[in-house]
């Protein structure tokens, strides 16, 4: 499955940001789209745009809602056909200083960024396996899921998504289901604003004094349409990891060297 024309994709967080970039790239290739997002206004704009190109249905969904996930999946497949391309993309960029970590902050970060991916996988993977027609799963993590920084909430959830994806890739290969993990660097999205608006009772948004610098960093990276095309290219190559730039390379090189250096050297032959 390389061009995917006539396939059906389910894209979480697809009304905006990277999810919208992925949806646009798929639409150009004749893929039917089930686009879900928690932001109804973004969904409406996405439907107006994407329906000019391909068949599209939109659904409001909080990816933490397992029952809601199943209901939306049923409705999407009833309207568009069987989903064989799954993009678990919805997420937030939580932040907390170590001294201010609280259980409710952990819960929000893990529920959205990790359990949201688990819910997508567990909703659609059994269907894909039962049909026996293969499929593709792309989970969105981050470069921070490969090399940690001091933002423990974000790094924890993104490392987990990377590990989930790498393991799932091995587990589903015999079913003809490919898995890739998208590990973007800076991308020009509104994730900082969206995270601040998703706080509920847990203050996990960036403090005001950091917002401008982080937003400038994100805007320095790839645009969402370029990322959408990178995802398609990564899928065609059946890449385990899909990157959006070179930013992570020196940090990966440093981490890998330190990891390898930490492994004990083999004992000398005949040593006692």
TrEMBL record:
Pfam families assigned: adh_short (PF00106)
Keyword Oxidoreductase: yes
Record InterPro entries: NAD(P)-bd_dom_sf (IPR036291), Sc_DH/Rdtase_CS (IPR020904), SDR_fam (IPR002347)
Transmembrane segments: none
GO MF assignments: oxidoreductase activity
Source superkingdom: Bacteria
Keyword field: Oxidoreductase
Keyword Iron: no
Family statement drawn from the similarity comment of this UniProt entry: Belongs to the short-chain dehydrogenases/reductases (SDR) family.
Record's protein name: Short-chain type dehydrogenase/reductase
Species for this entry: Saccharothrix coeruleofusca
């Amino acid at each position: 499955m390389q061009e995917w024309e006539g396939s059906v994709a389910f894209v979480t967080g697809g009304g905006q940001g990277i999810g919208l970039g992925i949806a646009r790239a798929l639409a150009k290739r004749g893929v039917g789209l089930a686009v879900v997002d928690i932001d109804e206004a973004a969904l409406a704009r996405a439907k107006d745009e994407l329906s000019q190109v391909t068949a599209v249905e939109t659904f409001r969904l909080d990816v933490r809602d397992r029952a809601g996930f199943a209901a939306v999946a049923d409705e999407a497949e009833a309207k568009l056909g069987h989903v064989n391309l799954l993009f678990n993309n919805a997420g937030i960029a939580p932040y907390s200083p170590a001294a201010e970590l609280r259980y409710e902050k952990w819960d929000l970060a893990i529920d959205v960024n990790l359990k949201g991916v688990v819910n997508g996988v567990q909703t659609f993977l059994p269907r894909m396996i039962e049909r026996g027609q293969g499929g593709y799963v792309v989970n969105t993590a981050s470069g921070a899921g490969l090399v940690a920084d001091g933002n423990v909430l974000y790094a924890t959830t993104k490392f987990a998504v990377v590990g989930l994806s790498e393991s799932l890739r091995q587990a589903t290969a015999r079913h003809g289901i490919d898995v890739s993990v998208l590990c973007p660097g800076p991308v020009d999205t509104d994730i900082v604003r969206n995270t601040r608006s998703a706080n509920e009772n847990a203050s996990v948004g960036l403090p005001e004094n950091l917002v401008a610098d982080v937003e400038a960093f994100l805007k320095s990276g790839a645009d969402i349409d370029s990322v959408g095309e990178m995802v398609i290219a990564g899928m065609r190559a059946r890449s385990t990891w899909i990157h959006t730039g070179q930013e992570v390379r020196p940090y990966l090189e440093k981490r890998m060297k330190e990891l390898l250096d930490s492994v004990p050297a083999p004992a000398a032959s005949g040593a006692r």
